[in-house]
Amino acid sequence: MRRNRHRLLPRFTALALALALFAGCTYKNAMKRGDEAMASGQYDDAIEQYERALAKKPDSEEARSKLAQAREKAVEQKVGQSRDALARGEFASAVATASEAAAILPDSPAVQQLIGELVPAVIAESERLTAAARFADAMALLDATTRGLPSARESISAAADATRE
């Protein structure tokens, strides 16, 4: 019995070493893919890759720093897309994209400023829809806004109450 243990020890050691090397490669691959995604402006993909890298190596300051940068860039991109959609009168798209930005960095000043711009525009659009007897459309827009942007719930609730009346 004792002999079998001695034979297994090198095998377990080799397995542990292989797993450690695999985890290191996985970390490096995730970091590389994250860097490539950042370079091509695919910030959501970069976030995913840097999160994978951090899962493999939780103490990596490099992965943590790059993840923070990817989040900032993703929010910046989504805020711009939301403002563009708002300028085109695409309120549902503007709300959806703002919601994505808020999910990434809810306390970001850029996100908070966007919400401050978006809520009055959504309320004005819901009032326009209500005046045109498009109550269902007005309520759908208000509901989407409260679901996607919970911090706007109080402001939107007052407009929703007016639409129901």
Which H/E pattern describes the elements?
HHHHHHH
Largest sheet: none
> What does the average pLDDT come to?
87
Multimerization status: single chain
What structural class do helix, strand and pairing data support?
A: mainly alpha
Low-confidence spans: none
Continuous helix count: 7
Distance between the termini: 83 Å
Got a strand count? 0
Measured as a percent range, the helix fraction is: over 70%
Rg is 24 Å
Work out the strand percent: under 5%
Shape summary: elongated
Q: How would you characterize the overall build of this protein?
A:
The structure is a single chain. The protein is mainly alpha-helical and about 160 residues long. About 85% of the residues lie in helices and about 0% in strands. The chain has helices at about 1-40, 45-55, 60-85, 90-105, 110-130, 135-150, 155-165. Helix 1 runs antiparallel to helix 2 (about 45-55), helix 3 (about 60-85) packs antiparallel against helix 4 and helix 4 (about 90-105) packs parallel to helix 6. The chain is elongated. It starts with a helix and ends with a helix. The mean pLDDT is about 85.
